[in-house]
Amino acid sequence: MAAESSPKIAIVDESPIRAAILEEGLREAGFTDVVRINEMQSLLSRIYALDPDVIVIDLENPSRDVLEQMFQVSRAVRRPIAMFVDQSDAASIQASVDAGVSAYIVDGLKKERLKPILDLCISRFNAFAKLQDELDRTKSALEDRKVIERAKGILMKLKGLTEDEAYVLLRSTAMREKKKIGEIAQSILTASELLK
Amino acid sequence: MTTPLQIGFIPLIDAAALIVAVEKGFTHAEGLDVKLVREVSWSNVRDKLNIGLFDAAHVLAPIPIASSLGLGHIKVPIVVPLTLNLNGNAITVSPALHAVITAEIDGDPLDPMATARALSRVVATRRRNGGEPLTFGMTFPFSTHNYLLRFWMAAGGVDPDEDVRLVVLPPPFMVDSIASGQIDGFCVGAPWNSIAVDRGVGRILHFGSDIMQRAAEKVLAIRQPWADKNPQTLAALVRAVFHAAEFAEAPDNRNEVARILARPEYIGVDAGVILRTLEGRLKIAADGTIRESSRYMMLAREDASTPDPLQAAWLYAQMVRWRQTPMSMEALKAAQVVFRPDLYQTAFDDKGTRQTASKAIGAFAGPAFDPTDIEGYFAALQTGHESPEIPC
After folding, report:
1. Which residue in A61, A71, A76 is closest to B40 by CB distance?
2. Is B334 buried (19+), middle (13-18) or exposed (0-12) by CB count in 10 A?
3. B89-214: same fold as B3-85+216-269+302-355?
4. Which tens digit of pLDDT belongs to each residue from B249-305?
5. Nearest CA in chain A to B180
6. What is the pLDDT of residue B181?
7. Do A68 and B72 touch (CB under 8 A)?
8. Closest in A71, A87, A102 to B141, CB measured
């Protein structure tokens, strides 16, 4: 039955990883008709060719304004889109903007059918942001470790300390100056570079 | 104690007053701690303002009206206590389109009526030859760019919905799109017209001020409940931004302002291009032809900062004219009160001397715009390009 069939969802996202995560989530939830668009050139004609019922776009994407054009009634717009969420549903708007995603319903799809899709996009976007954040922190921790190793080496050589003593000195200085140990290590590297 | 404020902006030269207000300490002097947040789309700025993530925003003048009327999106009452600039746009066409317009032109190429009629002949020839319709880029459905292009074309007898294609493109994509031939022309703000000229892929056909002598372009937008609750903070912000606009416009400060705006966290383009815009001296063609206009972009001069309900009514009339909303007297009134000269005036000690009377829009064609006779205005427009040109 057509009314029960899965709505066609277009994901507009320049981040291929995030789009893949989103698509997987939607498929797991039973939305089988999902298409990804990561090419922003002639976005509108691509969307018309696909003719989706729902369009999901990330908020870092300047092409979001292109989609807003679909509210218009003109020759360029064949199937106008409606509000992306219900007027009364301020919480959904807040949550989606916070998560960095927006969804548009193309004319014809019932609004209540958008809600589960939007909720899923929000949770996947949040999960992606968390992953990204963890990745960034891991990267910077690795970077810090390298810097600390080198700073310890310099302290050991200049002050004749053991490795443990060098680390204790770094740590206590960091605590006293209310800075991160990586920052203290970096200033040692910078200073030693200057004094070369 | 300072009041923290988050203000959203799009990297365009007409965000100058806001950026200068922060960088030159005007907001700090008013006890405000403003954090400017750069955004990538007008939809984002609108949504973040509407849900309260931003306290204020740099937006296209029609957006607060659309939000207040609930057009295209959820209905959120917005007020405008200050106009950030009048004018500042230009219509740029590809060298190929410029050549065919020039070949068809009968009259002064600086006269928008002459170019619009030439465009009409170009469009008719293309149709006869079975060519694809011309495509023009603009920045947002509720934008002055959209309305300027449409006003200009319609005056020459071109139906902007039937005879050409108008497509929304983010400003940073305009230049690449005209270079690749996806669009034949565009209407956008600075610096993008100049960048297209510098790259040799576009020629500035008109300044926006050729079409309208006085058109509200970007405004400072604030949620009405916030404005009602924080009158002191609002007044402080209006003062800071107004004084920054005066600073940015003073010839002696232009070099410094151009350097500030050029920084990567703001607009991130060459300071020389920004300087040309601030001076109103634009290179319009790849051969280096310069055109100068004191009306190109106005920040504080000639009472540019005053929010004028006449401008709001004109923008509403364009929404009606291009079928974005049906005509209603109630909505017209609601649109006019979005622009709040009273909030502007009360921010200053010399409020008595501040000019808040409406000033004419000065469109190059059509009847003079009178919001008290909007039906008469539409009726006069119906007669189209055959009607005599009445200066407003």
Report:
1. A61
2. middle
3. yes
4. 999 999 999 999 999 999 999 999 999 999 999 999 999 999 999 999 999 999 999
5. A41
6. 94
7. yes
8. A71
The chain B residues in contact with chain A (CB within 8 A) are 40-44, 47-48, 50-51, 53, 70, 72-75, 139-141, 161-162, 165-170, 172-173, 182, 323-324
- Smallest CA–CA distance from A74 into chain B, residue: B161
Do B137 and B174 meet the contact criterion of CB atoms below 8 Å apart? yes
The answer for residues whose C-beta is within 8 angstroms of residue B188's C-beta and 6 or more apart is B89, B90, B92, B137, B138, B139, B145, B171, B174
The alpha carbon of residue B141 is apart from the nearest alpha carbon of chain A, in Å, by 6
Inform me whether the pLDDT recorded for B386 exceeds 50.
no
CA distance A7 to chain B (A): 22
CA distance B15 to chain A (A): 18
CATH code of domain B3-85+216-269+302-355: 3.40.190.10
Chain B residues whose beta carbon lies within 8 Å of the beta carbon of residue A15? none
Going by pLDDT thresholds of 50, 70 and 90, the confidence category of residue B387 is very low
Test A75 with B161 for CB contact under 8 angstroms: yes
This complex has an ipTM of 0.86
CATH topology for the B89-214 domain = D-Maltodextrin-Binding Protein; domain 2 (3.40.190)
Q: How confident is the model at residue A109 (pLDDT cuts 50, 70, 90)?
A: confident
Across the interface, of B48, B140, B161, the residue whose CB is closest to A68 is B140
Residue B282 is encoded by which pair of tokens?
Answer: 């634009």
The DSSP call for residue B134 is: P
Residues A149-183 have pLDDT tens digits of 999 999 999 999 999 999 999 999 999 999 999 99
Q: Which of B45, B158, B169 to mutate to test the interface with A (most CBs of A within 10 A)?
A: B169
pLDDT digits (tens, 9 = 90+) for B64-122: 999 999 987 788 999 999 999 999 999 999 999 999 999 999 999 999 999 999 999 99
Contact with chain B for residue A168, Cβ under 8 A = no
Q: What is the CA radius of gyration of chain A?
A: 25
Give the sign of the dihedral formed by CA B90, CA B92, CA B98, CA B100: negative
- Concatenated DSSP letters for B169-208? --HHHHHHHHHTTS-SEEEEETTHHHHHHHTTS-EEEEEH
Domains and CATH numbers, chain A: 2-132 (3.40.190), 137-194 (1.10.10.10)
Every domain of chain B and the residues it spans: 3-85+216-269+302-355, 89-214
Identify the band that residue A75 occupies on the pLDDT scale cut at 50, 70 and 90: low
Cα→Cα distances B304→A44, B215, B342, Å: 36, 9, 15
Do the Cβ atoms of A66 and B169 come within 8 Å? yes
- Run of H or E including B315: helix B309-321
